[in-house]
Amino acid sequence: MTGLLSAVHRVAVAVVRCSSGGPGMFYAVRRGRKAGVFLTWDECRAQVDRFPAARFKKFATEKEAWAFVRNSGSPQDSQGQKDECAQEPRVKASKRPREPPAAGEEDAPQPRAKLGKLHVEVAAPVSKDTFSYAGEHVVVYTDGCCSRNGRRRARAGIGVYWGPGHPLNVGVRLPGRQTNQRAEIHAACRAVAQAKAQNIDKLVLYTDSMFTINGITSWLQGWKDNGWRTSAGKEVVNREDFEELDRLVQGMDIRWMHVPGHSGLTGNEEADRLAREGAKQPEV
User: Which of 6, 10, 38, 98 is 20 to 30 Å from 250 at the Cα level?
Assistant: First the structure.
């Protein structure tokens, strides 16, 4: 017991108990406003909502949850890991299905020739007054979607939302391999490319894709150091996608912010709408 309490103090957190917590559900927060183990999604969400590169997961046992909190883990092992708090009932049932974990995709990788690349048109200069700001940072929302994700005739789209009626708002079809994760990554790529074309180098980028945030902020260097292979020796499925995002973010000051999908935030809802409109377009 003394050892456990010491570990608790080291991560500066306590287990939160309340009557609404379901039996056997333990929400572990490794990185957030407060690290630790919580018994309800509301408590978990309070620690990770809009916290840059938050790390959290749901477990069936308290022991596993605390092990996740105390163990920093490996970025290669973390590829495709679900942050399961985001799958709680507060997310509407109509939310698009998530792409299966990357480790599962690696069993049957798609030919790289089918990946495709987004063509970004250079827009005319837009007045700085048309953007929303958080301090000196311009705010943008991105989202990706894919109907029939992981199946034949899948259709993926990307959405980028800068504000009501903004000329840079975009909803287009994702070229190449049609998956939800690729759509999420390339939505961020499009937003960053647009920003650079407007001589914007400070962004607050909101996305509901923890895969994209973790990939660019936590896992990327580990993949590079390992020759773009996981610790199991398999190729990183979304290598080309993250290489493109990595290229674009050079010289940029980006604050990566996570927002739960369909949480009622206008920017996220609008980016999702644009992505769904893009998915309906013919593939280029």
Answer: 98
